[in-house]
Amino acid sequence: MIARVFIKPKKGVLDPQGKAVHSALGKLGFNQVRDVRVGKYVEIRLDTGDRDAARSGVQKMCDTLLVNKVIEDFTFDIADD
Amino acid sequence: MTRARAGVIVFPGTNCDRDTYHVVESTAGMEVDYLWYERKTLRDYQIVLVPGGFSYGDYLRAGALARFSPVMEALREYADRGGLVLGICNGFQVLLEASMLPGAMQKNKTLRFICREIHVRVERSDTPFTLLYRKGEVLSIPIAHAEGNYYASDETLRHIEDNGQVVFRYVDEKGGVTAAANPNGSVNSIAGLCSAGRNILAMMPHPERAADRLLGSEDGTRLFLSIKKALR
Questions:
Q1: Looking at this predicted complex, what is its ipTM?
Q2: From edge to edge, which strands make up the β-sheet containing A2-9?
Q3: Chain centroid offset of residue B58 CA
Q4: Which of B95, B155, B187, B223 is surrounded by the fewest CB atoms within 10 Å?
Q5: Residues whose CB is less than 8 angstroms from the CB of residue B108 and which lie 6 or more positions away in sequence, other chains included
Q6: Cβ neighbours for B43, distance < 8 A, ≥ 6 positions apart
Q7: Which of B102, B106, B153 sits opposite A16 (nearest CB)?
Q8: Complete DSSP assignment for B131-179
């Protein structure tokens, strides 16, 4: 199975990267951009066929290491490899 | 009188360990040991320093991987027993990731690595690390980081301010807190933070790089002499 973890800056937390990208897009003429948030994508291949086990394992990985919950939010999904 | 014993933690990627060792030994006159990150006990030390650098290449988030080293478990126990801990720069990031202090670091608001002399104001002179400074004194100390933009939620911020845990704040040379004098965008211009018990101090500026006249400033010297005095 494969887990796809999406990590993004928490709502309300200023995102310096997103702001810089927003401003760069504006300078390039993309005037329809209202806001940009830059996050991270983590892809994890898992040695299990059990979707529930995969789900609880990835949740723990996020809680322990992958995400800093002071500044980041996350979502993930599990798919067949 | 036996000399106080200090330990300087070394992770893969730490690079300020030798400067820190040198200043603690020569300025504060302590016995110093390097403590490899696999070490599991810190019983023999009166102070443990977590120096600057790029532990584990700053991968994922600065300090995020170092936090799971065996020595960090020992450091937590050591601090829980009241042991003195000083985190500098990457050391600050590691202590935040380990939740030994509240908050988190983000990329500098400029998105650039900043390496230059800045000014900080001493907010507390009643910690073991700042005994020899005057409250309100302005120090000139260099910073060198890309992720020093301190963030804490409004609630946490209120708590640490009410609790008097802010030890250093970025200011202009006259001691004024201004947006222009805040190099990285830190909330409330926070440059250094202590634990509620005052035995952990973490700071982004490098006092070990301001402890020799040849290097331009000696304003960091008294931080190490304060520790020495506190341990007497």
A1: 0.85
A2: A40-45, A2-9, A72-79
A3: 17
A4: B155
A5: A16, B114, B145, B146, B147, B148, B149, B183, B184, B185
A6: B78
A7: B106
A8: TTSPTT-EEEEEEEES--EEE--HHHHHHHHHTT-EEEEEE-TTS---S
Structure tokens at A57: 């394992």
Pick from A13, A15, A68: CB nearest B97: A68
Q: Residue A81: its pLDDT value, please?
A: 82
3-state helix, strand, coil in chain A (%, to 5): 35, 25, 40
Chain B CB contacts of A17 under 8 Å are 107, 111
| CATH number of the domain where residue B39 is located | 3.40.50.880
Residues of chain B under the 70 pLDDT cut: 1
CA angle B9–B156–B192, rounded 5-degree value:
40
Q: Over the Cα atoms of chain B, what is R_g?
A: 16
What is the number of residues in chain A? 81
Q: Write out the catalytic residue numbers of B.
A: 89, 206, 208
Q: Does A14 touch chain B (CB under 8 A)?
A: yes
Among B58, B60, B154, B160, pick the best mutation site for testing chain A contact (most A Cβ within 10 A).
B60
By C-alpha distance, the chain B residue nearest A11 is B153
Tell me the pLDDT tens digit for each residue of B100-137. 999 999 999 999 999 999 999 999 999 999 999 999 99
> Are B151 and B105 within 8 A, CB to CB?
yes
Confidence of residue A12 (pLDDT cuts 50, 70, 90): confident
| pLDDT (0 to 100) of residue A25 | 97
d(CA B32, CA B50): 13
pLDDT the model gives residue B1 = 59
**What tens digit of pLDDT does each residue of B18-36 get?**
999 999 999 999 999 999 9
* Domains contained in chain A, CATH given: 2-79 (3.30.1280.10)
Please give, rounded to a whole number of angstroms, the shortest distance from the CA of B209 to a CA of chain A. 28
How many domains are there within chain B?
1
Domain span including residue B80? 5-231
The answer on pLDDT for A58 being more than 70 is yes
